[in-house]
Amino acid sequence: MGTSGADHLRQIVEETDWYNGIVLDAVVPGGAWKRLPRPLQSWLRNYIGDSIPSNRAIYLQIIVAMKAMPWFCVLPTLLEYMAENGWTRCFASVGEVGWPAYFVYLTIYLVIVEFGIYWMHRELHELKPLYKYLHATHHIYKKQNMLSPFAGLAFHPLDGILQAMPHVIALFLVPTHFTTLILLMFCEVVWTANVHGCIHGKIWPVMGAGYHTIHHTTYRHNYGHYTIWMDWMFGTLRDPEQEFKKPD
């Protein structure tokens, strides 16, 4: 019974260490927080956690997102309508093409989307009118303590539609499984919320929240979508692991 109780307490300690690490590793370089007394670690985590972001920032993000949402829904509605009418290269069953071809087509589709979203996003920054009148709405959240998953949907409606256009273009170029397309549309919403959540998964080559937080603070790096490859290829990659490292 004593061993079981000890194991139970150890699990609680490990879990709170994990919570502390998620928040404090992002703001206290070098793991210095681990030398603090445990109650102070928990207090600091809760204090910072409650401040990233503020309730007001979250509220404003929700308002912007809800205003844009009816317009965001136009594009997937249009995609379904075009697929139903045979205007795209969508197919209904994997059996129509076979599994090997399915995975080849899916890979090509994702490469086109990755390439297209990278350049669309980059041009929304580099073309000043597009940035001023569209993308700046999203980039008012320019610090880590202003970001939350809600910021992932807080766009000017036309901005969000433009960044999703590579999905439309890919449908006319690549045979695409319709059910997979619907799943990808769902994943888009989950993903854009995830990369604005300030919790970096550190899974190479995924464009996680750490990379995207840098994008919101420098405006010139990490334009990619699912992966870091386009930023690596075109010279705009900035690694979050290097941010807190001091020069020798």
Biggest sheet descriptor: 2 strands, parallel
Determine the number of helices (DSSP H or I, runs of at least 4 residues).
10
Strand content: under 5%
Shape annotation = globular
Q: How far from one another are the termini?
A: 52 Å
* Rg from alpha-carbon coordinates: 21 Å
Number of strands: 2
Mean pLDDT: 84
Instruction: List the secondary-structure elements in sequence, H or E.
Output: HHHHEHHHEHHH
Secondary structure: helix percent? 55-70%
SSE class: mainly alpha
Q: Any low-confidence stretches, pLDDT <50, length ≥5?
A: none
The strand line-up of the biggest sheet is: 1-2
Secondary structure elements and their pairing?
Blueprint: H1 2-27, H2 38-51, H3 55-72, H4 74-84, E1 90-91, H5 99-126, H6 128-133, H7 157-173, E2 176-177, H8 178-194, H9 209-218, H10 229-234
Parallel strand pairs: 1-2
